[in-house]
Amino acid sequence: MPMDKKFYLEIKHIDKKTGARYGILHTPHGDVEVPMFMPVGTLATVKTLSPEEIKQLGAGVILSNTYHLHLRPGEEIVKQAGGLHNFMDYHGPILTDSGGFQVFSLSTFRKISEEGVEFRNDFNGDKEFFTPEKIIKIEEALGADIIMSFDECIPYPADYKYVKESTLRTLRWAKRGLEAHTRDDQALFGIVQGGAFKDLREMCAKELSAMDFPGYSIGGTSIGEPKDVCFQMIDDAVRFLPKDKPRYLMGVGSIDYILGGIERGVDMFDCVLPTRIARHGALMTSSGRVNIRDSKYKNDFTPLDPECDCPACKHYTKAYLHHLQVCNEEYGKRLNSIHNIRFLIKMMEGAREAIKEDRFEEFKAEYLAKYGDSRGF
Is 97 among the catalytic positions? Predict the structure, then answer.
């Protein structure tokens, strides 16, 4: 069966005031609504949560990391288990990133060449060499529904000459990865790079579009650049991408950035933010940010968020969550993570309804009134 019959985006409605899109993403492991937030399960697990819980929270696609799974346990073990869906017992859609960000940000002893990237294995010190073809081979063994091309995540700021050379190399790597890809049940996405330079973003988006990928990612954002620069990067990519293909803004999980991305026609988002901050007691609620460690919650026997339907809010009080947090109990971290993931997924559910009713602009304004434009989440 051709890939376009197993994986495609069905646009149902575009908000009349903005570029926000509502649609259905069809995948081999089920259909999901967009725009959507994808919880991150780096090592084939969303930290402290079970696959069943993730499903119950309303998640569609979840994300795992090619770099980390290659190092541990290794893609061959995952393949022997029947792929990621069987290995982690999650039978909805799964996305694997290419590991490019991790190679360039976490690994030591990096050497970039036209062929690929040489780096040190952070666990045993062995030399590793990633090429676009090897990344595709690893991702095919992992067996996710959506996989990413190998790219270089360009730092910010960077000078024009470097960004241009890197972007052109990323395009060549994308072509090589596309040619190496053999599985017709996986959708390979191209990744738009180009730094903060409008002409390079345009060039990269146009070249990738001509390669006719099933979907497109926008990379190299949310890495330290000002918000207006980030949004300009998104604009400079989206306007040159196919209107009928999914658009994925990589590594974005703060409320203001997600809403800004939706407004610009982005369909998919992922980030470790909700679970990372949850483990430290920072919670997203309908009334704004809550630091559950704060002593003022010690005697607060009200729900964390009366507008939330997650188990943490339905069954426990702020006093109990505060107690678990200050005692460093793992159950507290679990409940906090459950809440934050559900909060973002519920926000996306609301965003989809607002788009269908042509009121996304108002919906966005309501959320930003609570969180502000610059408080991170």
Answer: yes
